[in-house]
Structure formats: C-alpha cells, structure tokens
Amino acid sequence: MLILWASKKGQNMSETSQFNPEIERDKLKIEYEKIAVENRKLEVELKQSKWTALSVVVSLLAILGTVSYGLWNTYQQAKFAFQAEIAKGIIASQDPEEANAKAQFFIELFPDKLPQTFAKQVDPSRWSNALGWRGRLALFQTIAKGLTADQAITLWRQLFPEDKWATALSVPPPETNQIPKVEQKPQ
C-alpha cells in the first residue's frame, strides 16, 4: 500500500511540476495588482493621517487664539474700567483746576496704569475762567448779599456773560431788571 501511495504521489508531482507560463503570468499579474491595491491603501491612509494631523493643529491654533483673545480682552476691559473709575473721581471735583490736579496725582500714583497724556487731554482753561468756579461763587456771594433772586441772576449775567446756564433761566434780561446802585462810603 505504501508503494501505491508513493506512485500516486509521484504522479501528482509530475503533473504539477509542469510549468505553464500563462498561468504563472496570470498569477504574477494578480500579485502585482494586489501590491498596487495595497500601495493605494497606504497612500490613502497617509493622506488621511496628514489631514487628521492638520485638523488637530488647526483646532489647537483656534483654541490658542480664542484663549489669547479672551485674556487680551479681559486685560483691556480691566484697564478701561480702571480709567473710568479714575475719571469718575476726577469729575467729582469742584472746579477744573482741582480736576487737573487730581488727574496729575493719579498719573503719578499709577504711572503704569494711566497714559502720560491722561491729564493733558483736557485743557482746564476751556472749562473755567481766571477765578475758577469757587472763586466766582465766593465773589458773587459777597457782592449779591441783600439782592432778590432776579437781581442776583441779573448780576451774575453781567459779571459772567460766558455762563450760558444763567441766560437759560426765566428771568427778565439784564436791561429790564436793574441792579440797585451800591453807594460807596467815603474813606
């Protein structure tokens, strides 16, 4: 039985050992096509990995940009809020000269938080006259003792014609409301 098996095995080997070039060519062609498909798969995977890496980088840049803008915006808001609080303190001044002095004080107190031009942006001479608000009021109170309200407003209009608020009051103009003459005592 062993001999029969060996003879059959030899017969099978002899049949397969015959070289058929056409079949071998087809096999090679199929192998080349398999390799080409594998190469295309690798190219697609490489492109996908590049796009994935690019999308990760773009996402990280977007996050970095958003965080940076948020920090910068918060800094700017804090800076403007601080300057607004300083401005409120300056506006509460009695006259422009005091406001200018306060502005200079705050600039010296907070040199890194306020621009050096902070107080120079407003000219106090545009907002007051030589006496200043307090001086004008003190002068007026001294002169206007004993006058009626109409006479006091008329006097104010004559002394300080540049004050537009006094002309807006509903009091007759200075020509019709005469101020009593103050007699000077001889010395």
Q: Rg from C-alpha positions?
A: 49 Å
Q: Which term fits the overall shape?
A: rod-shaped
Q: Kindly report the average pLDDT value.
A: 77
Q: Helices and strands, in N-to-C order?
A: HHHHHHH
Biggest sheet: strands, sense, closure? Answer: none
Structural class label: mainly alpha
| Percent of residues in helices | over 70%
Q: Classify the beta-strand content into a percent band.
A: under 5%
Total strand count, please?
0
Summed up, the domain count is 2
**Unreliable segments of 5+ consecutive residues:** none
Distance between the termini: 166 Å
Number of contiguous helices: 7
Tell me what the structure shows.
The protein is mainly α. It folds into 2 domains: 27-127; 132-168. The protein contains 7 helices and no strands. It has helices at residues 2-16, 21-91, 96-109, 124-127, 132-143, 149-159, 164-168. Helix 2 packs across helix 3 (96-109). The longest helix has 71 residues, at 21-91. It is rod-shaped, with a radius of gyration of 49 Å.
What topology does this entry show?
Blueprint: H1 2-16, H2 21-91, H3 96-109, H4 124-127, H5 132-143, H6 149-159, H7 164-168
Descriptive keywords:
rod-shaped, 2 domains, mainly alpha, 187 residues
Short description:
The protein is mainly alpha-helical and 187 residues long.
